[in-house]
Amino acid sequence: MTDPIQSGRCAIIYFIDPPHLISPAIPLLLSIRRHHPDATVIPYTPKDRLRDIPERVRAFHEQMGAPIRELTQELAFSRKRYDKPYLHGNKLLAAAEERDTEFAIFLDTDTYLARPLDAEALLSPDHVAVVPESVAGFARRFIEIWDATYAIFGLTTPVERVRMLRTDREHPPYFNAGMVAFPEVAPSGRRFGALWLDTAMTIDFDPSVDDEAKRPWLDQASLPVAIARSGARFRELDRAHNYPVDGTDFPPRDDVRLYHYHGMERLEEAGHTAEIEELLVSSGLFRSLEHFLEPLRRKREEAAVYWKQIGDEAEARRVIKKQMEGVERSGLGALKRQIQQSKAREVALRKTCAEIVEEVFYDDGWLQAADTRTMKAAGRG
Fold it and tell me: For 302-339, how does the pLDDT look when each residue is reduced to its tens digit (9 = 90+)?
C-alpha cells in the first residue's frame, strides 16, 4: 500500500504561536523534510496573527513547501477562575481545521524527527495512535474525576488501563498530546479534530469537573474521551513515537522516532544537542546551535531584567500589606494608593516585557531564505 505520509494522504500539522513557539518550528520542519520530503505539512498560527510571524520565518516555510495558515476560529475556552486564555487550546483548534487529507498527525512544536514516522503503526481509519503520558496529571489517582468527566457525555470510564511512562502506574487511558495521529473522519462519521475540540470545550464549561483539575491538562483530559465518542479505538504506541527528553530518566536511544524535548534546556541537560545541531548546521541556515539559539537567549536575558522588576513590585506590595495590619483606618489611604501605583507599574512592566521578541535579535545570517543547498539537506533537493 502507498505510504499515506509520502503520498500526501496524511497532513503533518503543528502550531506556531507568536511571539512564542517560533524558533522551534524551524528544526521541526527541517527534520520532517529530511525524513518525509514529499509529505503534506501544514503549520497553523492564530487567526489574524500571521503578520506577527517574522517575514524570514514565513519565507522559510514557503520555500520548504509548508506555507503557514491562519486558524479560522479563535480561542473561546472558559476563563472562569483564570485570567488568561487556554493557549493549549490552539492545538485543538488546529486539529479541528478542515483539510483535504485522510489522516492527520499533530506534533507539538518542541519536537523533532530522528527517524521517519511509522505510517503503518500510526494511521488507520478506525484508531487514534497515541503514547501514554509520563504522569497522570489530570486525574492523578482519583478515578472519581474520570468518572465525572466521562459522565458529561453519558459514558463510563473505560476498563482499559495504560501505564504512565515515568511512574509506571496504571491509569485509565491518558496520553501525551504532543503526538496524536488520527483519521480526519472517525468511524462515527464526525471529523475527529472537531470532535476533540467539542469534547474539550464541553468539559471546560461543565461545572461537574472542578476547574482546578482542568488546567493545563484539558487537551489531554479530553483526548481519550473524544476517542471514545468517535467510535475509534486508541492504539497505544511505545515511547519511541513520542519520546520525552528528561535527563537520565529518558536517555537518548537509537530507536527513537520523535523526540519531545520540552525546551532546549532539556536537550542540554541530557547531553543530546549534537543531533539537532547537525540538523540545523547541515541546512546551511545556521553556523552552530549557539547561532540558532542566540536570539532566544538574548530575548530571555532582556526579559529577565523586567521579570526582576515585576518581582520587586510584588514584594513591595506584600511589605505594604503587612504594614497595613497595624495602621489606623484613617492612615490606610496613602498605603492603598501605593499599592495601586505599584500595580500600575507592574502592568507597564509586563507590557514592555511582552514586546521583547526574538526577531529584533536576528543577525543578517540568521535563517536566510532556503536555497538549493538547504533544500537538498532537508531532503527536498
Answer: 999 999 999 999 999 999 999 888 788 877 888 999 99
**Per-residue pLDDT at 173 exceeds 90:** yes
pTM of the model: 0.89
Neighbouring C-alpha atoms within 13 Å toward the C-beta of 369: 4
Residue 280: pLDDT band with limits 50, 70, 90 = very high
Q: What is the mean pLDDT of the chain?
A: 91
Q: 189 and 232 in contact (C-beta within 8 Å)?
A: no
Q: Which of 25, 16, 22 is nearest to 44 (CA)?
A: 16
Task: Say if residue 142's pLDDT is above 90.
Answer: no
Closest CA to 128 of 279, 7, 282, 231: 231
